[in-house]
Amino acid sequence: MFPAAPPSYSLLRLPLLQLLLLVVQAVGRGLGRASPAGGPLEDVVIERYHIPRACPREVQMGDFVRYHYNGTFEDGKKFDSSYDRNTLVAIVVGVGRLITGMDRGLMGMCVNERRRLIVPPHLGYGSIGLAGLIPPDATLYFDVVLLDVWNKEDTVQVSILLRPPHCPRMVQDGDFVRYHYNGTLLDGTSFDTSYSRGGTYDTYVGSGWLIKGMDQGLLGMCPGERRKIIIPPFLAYGEKGYGTVIPPQASLVFHVLLIDVHNPKDTVQLETLELPPGCVRRAVAGDFMRYHYNGSLMDGTLFDSSYSRNHTYNTYIGQGYIIPGMDQGLQGACVGERRRITIPPHLAYGENGTGDKIPGSAVLIFNVHVIDFHNPADVVEIKTLSRPSETCNETTKLGDFVRYHYNCSLLDGTQLFTSHDYGAPQEATLGANKVIEGLDTGLQGMCVGERRQLIVPPHLAHGENGARGVPGSAVLQFEVELVSREDGLPTGYLFVWHEDPPANLFEDMDLNKDGEVPPEEFSTFIKAQVSEGKGRLMPGQDPEKTIGDMFQNQDRNQDGKITVEELKLKSDEDQERVHEEL
């Protein structure tokens, strides 16, 4: 148990010649302590007073072990202790480097097992003893705890503790990984943990940046997988150990959680989760897109979500407004499509990450739902759904007064407005800026009874600010049905004649022939013209208001009555204005 010379108090075997002398003397002098039956001990007595619940391996001949011990005589006097030197015994078992009693006493031992060994003299230092320390024919008592065992034939031992159901890729040589770990010695003594530093351990695999055993143990791992990796010392820190935390010849145990993995050669990975039928247009660079997303790390940790803000993310794609990976991943998408976009860090936020949610070198996964997209050059898309069977000789044009029913929705199907809620058709004069430009355009050229679908880009609708109930930059979809149309009036006219006006217009209007026309007479006269089909008021307006506006226009001095000098047709006014300008 101690070297022959110089002494170092570790349980090493004496040289063979000295041992032979001990054996010869022991035969002549007896073996010291009696056995339980009353005679001397013939073999080592082993008391296993603490056996761990789990014993993955037992010490065998040729194994390398590390252990602590206290050595005493029968009277309890201590003659040696590894604890006093604060140094474990590290040695190969069963090859003659230990006294025979210790070699036998360690066989079959488990890590963290504690044994009491009684070693008779002929299996210890015999009749010679060890000068100044162990007297001749001494029975030795050892209290031993085994802390480590390995063999030069060992390989890295990998136990999969948890593997996620979805494994998008496995670690290969050359990959860059981010993982958490707890590192312990084989007896459970902790020497390091990434969790205490608040960040993952980030490194390349198979490039010499890690100990060889960890390089091997990480291969084939999936993001989110948990492994236990046991590494023999010759694939770890070997004979030198590492600092004060990893002793020489120590087996290492790592409990590893792989957070993510990528390769510097990786590109964006796309996975279509849902593709709506009838996709006729796909997004290209330069389009403006509105989409919802959930953003997570590769281990499933959510770092951002547009849903939490109850607002889509709105941006141009392919023009550098978003990270390069998202710029690429959104191109080719259809309206309503759901896709998963996996972005390596060199196409995301790189080595530095961003904020406190996205760490450096993180792979990002976005689950995206495309709400709509458009291009600033888009025009209104018009699709005829049905036309009346009878011949259509007149279609709507600028200036016409139209009545129509409509349903308005977003491209994802979210209904915004419908005229059916009001129980009456919507009314508008085309070209009078009473409706959004895209709808005004889409209502032109229609036949009464025709149904159309209109796709209106936001720059022809409510723009980037939106309107009440309409999100900013939203593409709108209308289904419209034309109920009726009326010819409109020329710009600036409130009333037109269907034929030439009366030759003596003022006299006909002056019903009581008193030389002046008050509002009542004016209103009665105009209504009579309309009723008799001789003229018509501007459609879509309150007739009373229109007639009131007409009266105000003719009552030049605003005295509440029209005289013959004041009454002029608009055509005559326009002609006079031309002469004045000339």
UniProtKB/TrEMBL annotation:
Which residues are in the EF-hand domain? 497-532, 542-577
Question: What InterPro entries does the record tag this protein with?
Answer: EF-hand-dom_pair (IPR011992), EF_Hand_1_Ca_BS (IPR018247), EF_hand_dom (IPR002048), FKBP-like_isomerase (IPR051989), PPIase_dom_sf (IPR046357), PPIase_FKBP_dom (IPR001179)
Identify the residues that the record assigns to the PPIase FKBP-type domain, covering every copy: 62-150, 174-262, 286-374, 399-486
Query: Which protein, by its recorded name, is this?
Result: peptidylprolyl isomerase
Q: What does this protein do?
A: PPIases accelerate the folding of proteins during protein synthesis.
**Source gene?**
FKBP10
List GO terms (cellular component aspect). Answer: endoplasmic reticulum; membrane; mitochondrial intermembrane space
From which domain of life does this come? Answer: Eukaryota
